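Take our chain:
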Amino acid sequence: MSDNSKIFQSACLLQFSTSIWQCTKALNPAVLKGKVDIESDWFKGRKFLINSDLLGPIHTAVHQARNHIVKNALPFPMQSIYLVPKDRLDVIDDRMKHYKQRFWDCVDEFIPMYNPAREEARQVLGDLFNEADYPEDISKKFRFEWRYLVLGLPGKSSVLTPEIYQREKEKFQLMMEETRELAVSALCEEFSDVVSHLTEKLNGNGVKPKTVKSSLFNSLREFLDDLTSRNLFDDAKIKELSDQARSLIDGINPYQLQYNTQLRNKIHGDMMTLKTTIDESIMELPRRKMRLAA
C-alpha cells in the first residue's frame, strides 16, 4: 500500500455544514383517512408546514456554495468533507464568503414571510395544523458554516498501546487509499465530461457544422490548468491524458476549424479517441465499498 499521508503537505480538509428549517412533518396515514378535501400539494406522506417554495432561494445558495467547493476540491470518504489543494484555498474561501452573505440575505428575506406563511398553513391544514410544529424564533433554524481540518497519521504516544496504534494507522492508511481512488475517479469523470462537451461542439452530425467560437477550447484549457494543483496524488495516468489533450489542442486556431472540414473532423476524431481512453481508465479504477461516517 502506498504512503498517501504526505498529501496533507499540499492539501487540507474542508468541512461544509448547513442547516435549513425542514418545513415538513411525517404523517400517520390513519390521520388522513376520510379527509378527501386535502390539497395534494401540501400532503405527500408528509404535511408541508408552509409553502416550501419560500425556502427555495436559501436552498439555492447552499447548492451553489457546495458546487463551488466540488469544482475546486476533491472528494473525501467522509460526509460533507472535501480535500482541498492549498493553492485553491483563497479561491474557495473568498467565494464562500460571498455565498454565506447570499445565504443570510435569503434568510433575512424569508423571515418576514414566515408568520404570513404560517397563517396560510393554518387555513390549508385545518385540524391538522399544530402550533407546536412552528418555532418561535425561526432564525435559529438556519446555519451556514465551513472550517478547515488538519488530519495526520495517528502518532505513537503513551496513551496508545502498540496494538491500538497499529490498528489506527492501518485505518488511516485505508482511508487515504480510498481518498486517492475517489480523487482520481472524480478527476477522470470531470475530464471525460469536458472532452465530451467539446466533441459535441465539433460534431456537425452530417448537417451544417455548429459555429466554432474562439472560446471553444477554453473549458478544456481551464480544466487542464487546474489539474496542476488538483492532481494531488500525482496520478501518472491523469498526467499522461492531460499531456495528450494539450498536444491535441496546442496551436489549433478555432477560426481555421470553421472553414477547414478536414481539420475539424481530425480534431473531432482525436477527441473521441481521447474520451474513449479516459472512459476506459475510469472502468479500470478500483471500487471500494468502505465509507466512513463524519
